[in-house]
TrEMBL record, chain A:
This is NADH-quinone oxidoreductase subunit H. Its EC number is 7.1.1.-. NDH-1 is composed of 14 different subunits. Subunits NuoA, H, J, K, L, M, N constitute the membrane sector of the complex. NDH-1 shuttles electrons from NADH, via FMN and iron-sulfur (Fe-S) centers, to quinones in the respiratory chain. The immediate electron acceptor for the enzyme in this species is believed to be ubiquinone. Couples the redox reaction to proton translocation (for every two electrons transferred, four hydrogen ions are translocated across the cytoplasmic membrane), and thus conserves the redox energy in a proton gradient. This subunit may bind ubiquinone. GO terms for cellular component: plasma membrane. The gene is nuoH. GO terms for biological process: aerobic respiration.
From TrEMBL, chain B:
GO terms for molecular function: NADH dehydrogenase (ubiquinone) activity; quinone binding. This is NADH-quinone oxidoreductase subunit J. Pfam families: Oxidored_q3. NDH-1 shuttles electrons from NADH, via FMN and iron-sulfur (Fe-S) centers, to quinones in the respiratory chain. Couples the redox reaction to proton translocation (for every two electrons transferred, four hydrogen ions are translocated across the cytoplasmic membrane), and thus conserves the redox energy in a proton gradient. Its EC number is 7.1.1.-. The lineage of its organism: Bacteria, Pseudomonadati, Acidobacteriota, Terriglobia, Terriglobales. Keywords: Cell membrane, Membrane, NAD, Quinone, Transmembrane, Transmembrane helix. It is found in: Cell membrane. Its main location: membrane. It comes from Granulicella mallensis. The keyword Cell wall biogenesis/degradation does not apply.
Length: 354, 168
């Protein structure tokens, strides 16, 4: 079925539909991740969290959105105007673009187009890394163009932190790439689909060290607690987005949560078998055809993403903030060498087993 | 389709390069350089060198240019002042640039057969990965230059550390 090449119009139409659907779902997920974070954080701190708007506070994201839309959009006088406007756009678009290479479910071809992935690139992983590294500019430019010392400090911290942890992050993924022998995310997922949980990279693939390095580097990459130095409110007011208000602030906020979701997607795809079931092919007879066959992988994928998001929130509620020099020496002197050793060990093991 | 891609990003690269020269503020110039590098990455990709494209984005636009922007931000460099420049630049510059352009064109045209041709966008749809081939070449026939380059970079890093230490 996959050898059918679609006509250009079908391809274009289906791709546009896919892009719209994925964008809508991602943005909704971003809004509800904020709510989830506020609720769970509230419960962990022994309070209720948002509970007034709608049942269980479920309409809170809507209220937040309306509030941010209707706020006055302040433009301080001394800012570098074009870059000040450009910075949140770069941050948000980079955060949203990288979702386009993520395979959400099992390969399901309709009219020659894969339904659950916008683009299956043979360098999908590198595309995600590249776009993340472009996203640094959003933060760097926002701090500089604000013409505010706290913003500048925040953005300098953020860019230094992102550039440093990108190395550890990239190196921690090499072990997985070595095992899958491909950079295509679809191939990486397929390489872990043989025996369910046992062939996931984190367990059967012996990439558990790589996984923990990735997890820690990912917290730093998304500027989340305990590595949220760039917006340390006790020192820097609000960091790089101090001068931003209304929708421009909301764009930074959305970019942060979209990045969280992307990072959770990558962790799921690379270490937890993507959309594969944890039971492997054990229950394949139960749902071998039709609707359930297409939807079940998506259920597993969403469940794994949700697990990572909860982990994020849990860590934020638990751990205090690092000191900046501790953060840097942790990244360079601990994570980097361990990631290198992990690569070495994986390569040797693969060479030994052939 | 691929020709359209080539024309759009080729134009973008040229416009970015011109903007880099004409902008007065260093940070705007740095940003134009990033645009040039990104468009070059797209051109590499459309020629079938997807690994080179990704490396271009990650290394050049993602790491090196971040350092550039970082330094400009830290030094708080102001707008450059336009001077008329030296007379020599005017006398030698334009003919020199024209000469280099002519030389390169001549070389490319006369060595066309040896250089071979590639199909524009011919590799975009195929699933062939050239990463295997690149790594095979790097670790067999080009192993010595590859390792020597990495030692060279290590030496450069050590030199930078020594220079920075002296100032402390």
């Amino acid at each position: 079925m996959s050898h059918i090449t679609p006509s250009f119009t079908t391809f274009l139409l289906l791709t546009i539909v896919k892009i719209v659907v994925v964008l809508v779902i991602t943005l909704t997920a971003v809004a509800y991740t904020v709510l989830l974070e506020r609720k769970v954080l509230g419960r962990m701190q022994n309070r209720w969290g948002p509970s007034r708007v709608g049942p269980f506070g479920l309409l809170q994201p809507l209220a937040d959105g309306i509030k941010l839309f209707l706020k006055e959009d302040m433009m301080p006088l001394a800012v570098e105007r074009p870059l000040f406007v450009l910075a949140p756009i770069i941050a948000l678009s980079c955060a949203l673009i990288s979702i386009s290479v993520v395979p959400f479910g099992a390969k399901t071809m309709v009219g020659g187009v894969d339904l659950f992935q916008i683009a299956d690139l043979n360098i999908g992983l590198l595309v995600i890394l590249g776009i993340t590294s472009i996203g640094v500019y959003g933060i760097a430019l926002s701090g500089w163009s604000s013409n505010n010392k706290y913003s500048l400090f925040g953005s300098l911290r953020a860019s230094a932190q992102l550039v440093s942890y990108e190395l550890a992050l990239g190196l921690s993924l090499v072990g997985v790439v070595l095992r899958a022998q491909s950079l295509s995310l679809r191939d990486i997922v397929n390489s872990q689909s043989a025996h369910g949980m046992r062939s996931w990279n984190v367990f059967g693939g012996c990439q558990i060290i790589g996984f923990f390095i990735y997890l820690m580097a990912a917290y730093a990459e998304t500027n989340r607690a305990p590595f949220d130095l760039p917006e340390a409110e006790s020192e820097l007011v609000a960091g790089y987005h101090t001068e931003y208000s209304s929708m421009k602030f909301a764009m930074f906020f959305m970019a942060e949560y979209a990045n969280m979701i992307t990072v959770a997607c990558v962790a799921t795809l690379l270490f937890f078998g993507g959309a594969g079931s944890p039971f492997g092919h054990l229950f394949d007879g139960f749902a071998s055809t039709g609707f359930l066959h297409a939807v079940l992988p998506i259920f597993w994928f969403v469940a794994k993403i949700l697990f990572f998001l909860l982990l994020y929130i849990w860590v934020r509620a638990t751990l205090p903030r690092f000191r900046y020099d501790q953060l840097m020496s942790f990244g360079w002197k601990f994570l980097m060498p361990v990631a290198m050793l992990n690569i070495l060990a994986t390569a040797l093991a693969l060479a030994y087993h052939g | 389709m691929q020709t359209a891609l080539f024309i759009i990003f080729g134009l973008l690269a040229v416009l970015g390069a011109l903007n880099l020269l004409f902008q007065r503020h260093p940070i705007n110039s740095a940003l134009s350089l990033i645009v040039v590098m990104m468009s070059l990455a797209v051109l590499y990709w459309s020629l079938g060198a997807e690994f080179l494209a990704a490396a271009q984005v990650i290394v050049y636009s993602g790491a090196i240019m971040v350092l550039f922007v970082f330094v400009i931000m830290l030094l708080n460099a102001g707008e450059e002042e336009r001077t008329h420049g030296s007379q020599i630049a005017y006398i030698a510059g334009i003919p020199g640039a024209a000469a280099i352009f002519c030389l390169l064109t001549f070389v490319f045209l006369s060595e066309k057969k040896q250089l071979g041709t590639t199909q524009l966008g011919g590799y975009l749809t195929s699933a062939v990965s050239n990463i295997t081939e690149i790594s095979h070449t790097l670790f067999t026939s080009l192993l010595l230059p590859f390792e020597v380059t990495s030692i060279l970079i290590l030496v450069a890093i050590l030199g930078a550390v020594v220079l920075a230490r002296k100032e402390l």
